[in-house]
Write a structure and sequence with these properties.
Strand 3 and strand 4 form a beta hairpin. It is globular and about 95 Å long. It has 17 helices and twelve strands. It has four domains: 56 residues, no CATH class; 114 residues, Alpha-Beta Plaits (2-Layer Sandwich); 152 residues, 3-hydroxy-3-methylglutaryl-coenzyme A Reductase, Chain A, domain 2, CATH 3.90.770.10; 45 residues, no CATH class. With 451 residues, the protein is α+β, with helices and mostly antiparallel strands. Strands 5-10-12-11 form a four-stranded antiparallel beta sheet. Strands 7-8-6-9 form a four-stranded antiparallel beta sheet. A two-stranded antiparallel ribbon has the order 1-2. The structure holds (R)-mevalonate (MEV). (R)-mevalonate (MEV) binds next to helix 10 and helix 14.
Amino acid sequence: MFAKTSHNQLKMNETIAGFSKLSKEEKINWLAKEYFTPPQKAVELLKNYWNSNEKIQKLHDEFIENTISNFYIPLGVAPNFLINGKFSSIPMAIEESSVVAAASKAAKFWSTRGGFKATVINTEKIGQVHFIFKGDESKLELFFAQTKAKFFAETESITKNMRKRGGGILDIILKDKTNLLPNYFQLHTTFETKDSMGANFINSCLEQFAKTLKQEALVYELFSETERDVEVVMSILSNYVPNCIVRAEVSCLVEDLVEKHIPNPKAFAERFLQAVQIAEVEPFRAVTHNKGIMNGIDAVVLATGNDFRAVEAGIHAYASRDGSYTSLSHAKIENEIFTFWLEVPLALGTVGGLTALHPLAKLSLEMLENPSAKELMQFVAVAGLAQNFAALRSLTTTGIQDGHMKMHLNNILNQFEANDDERLLIRKYFKHHVVSHSAVVEYIEILRRPI
Ligand code: MEV
């Protein structure tokens, strides 16, 4: 390991044994000495971000190993979302300046045009036991058919509570994957996990399946010695959930799209449609188009204590399900009606995991009136669609930079530690001028020039 010293020379860093056993202060002191000049400044900064409420800090310390401080991102809110006839305020945890503003604008726009409609299409989760079987496949099929009930029976204690809530294991299928890898098979399992995301539940079931599989194979009389030796490679849920889909939609008469920035709604609707069609056929554009959707989706997923990495991985796999990466959203104009919608896979929970542990995740869920997982899927999909609508509206009319840079202006002012008088003058000036990083810096320099 190498790090730069204050003199820009390369020095060899020390390695450290038992780092996780050190106290938080000791960890910080070691890091400060090892990587920062002057060390005290780094120590102070890290401590400035500790929460003064010791209980809250302890909670965060214990979320992960080796916590040294907290890394804040803002929790914002986008109000006025009319969804299935009811108004909601959507919490969003995100650092990008324009995202919450864009969501709020889109929410307001659609609130007077019928609002958002959201529907959960299905809620099936997936898990797999990946194993190696060297032998006669027809014997394995017979073995599986005769043992299937045992997989259910031996997970009964794990599934008991979930079954009480109406969930559980839906089905287990033996899959032959030997066309992909020699001797590779799966127990491909589907689950209903109700209001929990279900990762722990699914993984516990799968690990029990793996045990049952090995035990039962060992004593299966039709198997040869080699066939009895089933090798379980791993047992894990899949974050790809193409049968856990939610749809969000907006629609109105083309002429009703009219507003200050949309003087010609027909031309706007047609241009908007073209923008969506480009994302449908062109992967480079589709990725950025979907990134705009993820701005909304991730922000709500994060604010409600859900796993945004799982959601990201699953959604992008879904976007390429037909072999080419494409848009998650679609649009049409039929009989003078403009319709814009998206369908995304979302495995979310409103109980368990961080949702109950993180006080702000709990608060976000309360703001959403303690939704079921299905209702949360609807909020998240709507936030994604709203974000996508806002981005495409800007892109196809004013361009994105105008609004984005106006929101980003604050960040530049903070970077240059502008005082109140400077902020007032700069904001006034850039109301009527194009904001760019260099233009703002230039203006700050002019203001600060000695007269
Ligand atoms: C920026 O965070 C998101 C956009 O690039 C999305 C898009 O291009 O559709 C504006």
